[in-house]
Amino acid sequence: xxxxxxxxxxxxxxxxxxxxxxxxxxxxxxxxxxxxxxxxxxxxxxxxxxxxxxxxxxxxxxxxxxxxxxxxxxxxxxxxxxxxxxxxxxxxxxxxxxxxxxxxxxxxxxxxxxxxxxxxxxxxxxxxxxxxxxxxxxxxxxxxxxxxxxxxxxxxxxxxxxxxxxxxxxxxxxxxxxxxxxxxxxxxxxxxxxxxxxxxxxxx
Length: 204
Description:
The chain is α/β, with parallel strands linked by helices.
């Protein structure tokens, strides 16, 4: 199994690229996509207001051990049950998603290249590079309309943790990338290049 990591700042277009690659490739063979976001540590012992205060942009916010265990299981041709994360309640759902082994696995998330234990699994490392102002506008729209956040909540979180952690962890991880994709999901040329690489992997 070959593993492709797609990292980049919040709302940079990582998920769009991963989904496009998965859609393009499905006629040639199965490509699994795992979101790092679904591996946020669960904190059922905390009230909602307390969970909102957690720094979700720090590597320590993720259940890295579980993700490593799942990646190794897939490499060993075993199915896994991926947790599902609810961004409205800041908690894991009671449901899981079964993922069966495939030739190609895509892992996408802001810190995929920043967390060394995950990065070590990757055969191809991609960083999606989108300007800060565009990413903030996208995040604002997404969090207000899809995640039940207020304008003040989005701005406060962005200033308190998202922006600082981007500078400390996300942006420096770009140096580990094999390929840097500007413009996110709109960069059809870069997506086509990665797609052809995936097809080569599926055909081997």
